[in-house]
Write a structure and sequence with these properties.
The protein is 67% helix and 10% strand. The protein is of the alpha+beta class. It has a five-stranded mixed beta sheet. A two-stranded antiparallel ribbon has the order 1-2. Mean pLDDT is 80; it is low at 103-109.
Length: 444
């Protein structure tokens, strides 16, 4: 079996090598290299000329708009290069973050807005990376163009030499292509052996050229990805903006939940209690026993309302978490779970209150899922610190099959964790229980 697989793999590799010179990918990569030289010449000329002119004019104010214009022009070059790489190399790069002016214009805002835009361009690292690409890509484009075109021309012309060498004896006084000549001797590719050797050399060059071109475009991929794409800082800013939106949405949802719980729970119960006490007051002189019964019922309602308020306060932020930390708070949550839960907390101290609160609510939500959906006989909660991370693990021996995309609440937990650079991992095979691991930054 292994020998057959090796033979199939070797045959497939040979076919790939033989088909490479005529493959569509090879022609696209060659097109990228050949079109790169004239474009890169234009980029280089305008970038160097513009930067030199702008730098020389910085002694006057004229140099500032000149430099800003060059930076904007180079960003346009980058847009063209990303499109060329997408079409010919299959490299899909996100556009860099737009350049945003930091200030606002008031009266005369047109002038101040233009100055702010020029200042933002001059301070934009992305714009300067585009200028750098326009400069350093030129010598590489010259090298790539010359090497790729030379190999391609020599390879195909030598491979096809048997089809066109007759041109020399038919239209010139030479028996074939002349390789060299000195005073006493000339060597022509005219004998069958020389023609066959030329064809063989052309075949080898033709087969090797696609891989050389692929290596050349590999460098282009690195240059375009490193200088014309989004920087890590841009990605981080975008991620933080997304996380901020998640945090705001989560906070708004929590406020709506609290308002709904107050309105439908404790508030409604207290309104009914006030009405009952009013009726008891009216009956106090006419029917003391009935009034006493109503007061007794109202007393029970007060206890229920107090319990609802305690539960609501615990849902917002439990006092035991603030006073005694995660160990006691998680033990309290575990005691209310529908199945037995073993809690093991091994922490050298306490993280910041925000991380501690998120950890508490993650474990609380996971234990609620165990109670409602897992069908488990038991569960476990483990909390420990590893390096600069706080790790939580909730496991059960239930039916398994939990899917974060299935609307089980796990997707919401993952978003909440992601908002603080946390991670949620779910391992839940059907019939083998569920293990959910959450990772949070420690931030003591």
């Amino acid at each position: 079996m292994s020998g057959s697989g090796s033979r199939d793999g070797g045959r497939g590799g040979l076919v790939t090598v033989l088909r490479a010179p005529v493959a569509a990918r090879t022609w696209r990569e060659l097109g990228f290299v050949l079109t790169g030289l004239p474009l890169s010449t234009l980029y280089f000329s305008l970038a160097v000329t513009g930067v030199a002119l702008g730098a020389g004019l910085l002694v006057t104010f004229i140099g500032v708009p000149v430099l800003a214009g060059v930076l904007l022009l180079c960003r346009g070059f980058g847009h063209l290069e990303r499109g060329r790489a997408r079409a010919l190399l299959g490299v899909a790069l996100a556009d860099p973050a737009p350049v945003r002016a930091g200030g606002r214009g008031g009266a005369g805002g047109g002038k101040s807005g233009a100055l702010a835009s020029m200042g933002a361009l001059l301070k934009s690292g992305s714009a300067w990376r585009h200028v750098l690409y326009s400069v350093i890509h030129f010598p590489w484009a010259v090298f790539s163009f010359c090497l790729a075109l030379t190999l391609w021309a020599y390879g195909w012309s030598s491979l096809l030499y048997p089809l066109w060498f007759w041109v020399f004896p038919a239209f010139t006084n030479q028996p074939g292509l002349q390789l060299f000549q000195n005073d006493d001797y000339s060597f022509y590719l005219d004998s069958p052996v020389a023609i066959a050797a030329t064809c063989l050399a052309g075949l080898l060059i033709t087969l090797a050229t696609p891989w050389v071109v692929r290596a050349l475009t590999g460098v282009d991929r690195v240059l375009i990805g490193g200088l014309l794409g989004r920087s890590r800082l841009d990605d981080r800013v975008r991620e933080l903006e997304t996380d901020r939106g998640v945090v705001v949405d989560t906070a708004a949802a929590d406020l709506r939940r609290i308002e709904r719980d107050l309105h439908d729970g404790a508030q409604a119960r207290l309104v009914a209690l006030a009405m009952d006490l009013g009726l008891a007051k009216e009956k106090l002189t006419e029917d003391p026993q009935g009034a006493a019964a109503m007061v007794d019922a109202a007393h029970g309602e007060v206890k229920v309302a107090l319990q609802e308020l305690r539960d609501l306060a615990r849902g917002i932020h439990p006092a035991v978490l603030t006073d005694r930390g995660l160990d006691a708070a998680l033990s309290s949550v575990a005691s209310r779970c529908a199945v037995p839960v073993k809690v093991a907390v091994d922490l050298p101290g306490r993280p910041v209150a925000a991380i501690e609160g998120i950890a508490y609510f993650v474990v609380s939500e996971l234990l609620q899922n165990v109670s409602k959906h897992a069908g488990a006989r038991g569960a476990g909660v483990d909390v420990w610190k590893s390096g600069g991370r706080l790790l939580l693990q909730v496991s059960d021996d239930g039916r398994g099959g939990a899917d974060p995309r299935g609307g089980s609440g796990l997707a919401g937990l993952a978003e909440r964790l992601d908002a603080v650079d946390g991670v949620l991992l779910v391992d839940s095979e059907a019939g083998r229980g569920t293990v959910v691991t959450a990772e949070l930054p420690w931030r003591a």
